[in-house]
Amino acid sequence: MPDTDREKNHKQRMQRKKEVIDTRIAKADKNRGVLLIHTGNGKGKSSSGFGMVARALGHNMRVGIVQFIKGSDSTGEERFFKQFEQVSYHVMGEGFTWETQDMQRDKEVANIAWKQAVKLLSDNTFNLVLLDELNIALKSKLLDIETVIHDLQQRPEMQHVIVTGRGAIPELINIADTVTEMKLIKHAYTSGVRAQKGIEY
Amino acid sequence: MPDTDREKNHKQRMQRKKEVIDTRIAKADKNRGVLLIHTGNGKGKSSSGFGMVARALGHNMRVGIVQFIKGSDSTGEERFFKQFEQVSYHVMGEGFTWETQDMQRDKEVANIAWKQAVKLLSDNTFNLVLLDELNIALKSKLLDIETVIHDLQQRPEMQHVIVTGRGAIPELINIADTVTEMKLIKHAYTSGVRAQKGIEY
């Protein structure tokens, strides 16, 4: 195919693509807070949530963050986001459930974290709430799912919520607006590369 | 199953999980810069990159960002990250390819953007380089893939690179360390909700 034909084809394809996208966008006309879920076994679930925190701060929005489960490393994002007064940052978890191996204790910790989450979810001055690793707490049955769904649905109309963590349960996916599965295609540790600062933590 | 049995089972499962994970981590002992790719049709490819930028800044790292393709909205992340002196932020694209519909012009713009990327990729004071939407430029053949791979592989040993955008080409996946596919499970616009500030842009 000569170059000019290729360019003409390209132009036509791009025009059709533009029409499809423009039509879809024109049809979406409601404004309200959305519930996003990032799940799956791949990278980027939490970091995408933190990227949206940065984006929201760029729009001068107020952001609440609750980390339900946290490794023993002090993380870069905690250090970074805690410096902003528009951010209310709460690290509640004491480690992964496979580190503590004590379900009763994990339940107590998760419920204290949920109480903190509810404070943010009932305060309409917060435009965005990130519930980091909440999926793991739900999947491990550390929290009552009906209470969680009720509290999420009672939140202010314009408040956005992002829930991260692998193993999102169907009940939560059901009430979510946007759900993304992060799928692992390839991971550096399989070629022997250690977790890298600024990338993994 | 009585509660105590369930808890014992849980404890055993978590112990096995901990062993598997600890063994894998112990085997990964190399330190070097990694090349990450975020691709797929789901949300979170760019925002996850920006979350890692935040994380890296929390570790006082220097970060370079090149946006290869950019919509007409001024984005929250641009406004946010441009305020940090450790960040070198370059918006090079002039819109999506289906907006411009002119391949020659898109090629010129992409190649100017790549020149900027090479400046960052040859400067070892940058610990992390985010090449946002580079995948789209490669998929649309706006850049020479062999040049791109060569320049990526010539970068400083400890420099991390994140490449985002749907449709990552096999040649790039091949040389990457960690690849994640963001899969769309559900999207708010299908239920008529507009793109929300702080979430979509």
TrEMBL record, chains A, B:
Lineage: unclassified sequences, metagenomes, ecological metagenomes
Enzyme class: transferase
Positions of the Cob(I)alamin adenosyltransferase N-terminal domain: 7-25
Pfam family of the protein (one): Co_AT_N
Keywords, in A-Z order: Transferase
Record flagged with keyword Transferase: yes
GO terms for biological process, alphabetical: cobalamin biosynthetic process
Keyword Cell division: no
Protein name per its UniProtKB record: Cob(I)alamin adenosyltransferase @ Cob(I)alamin adenosyltransferase, clustered with cobalamin synthesis
InterPro entries noted in UniProt: CblAdoTrfase_CobA, Co_AT_N_dom, P-loop_NTPase
One Gene Ontology term of the molecular function aspect: corrinoid adenosyltransferase activity
CDD domains assigned to the protein according to its UniProt record, in alphabetical order: CobA_ACA (cd00561)
EC code: 2.5.1.17
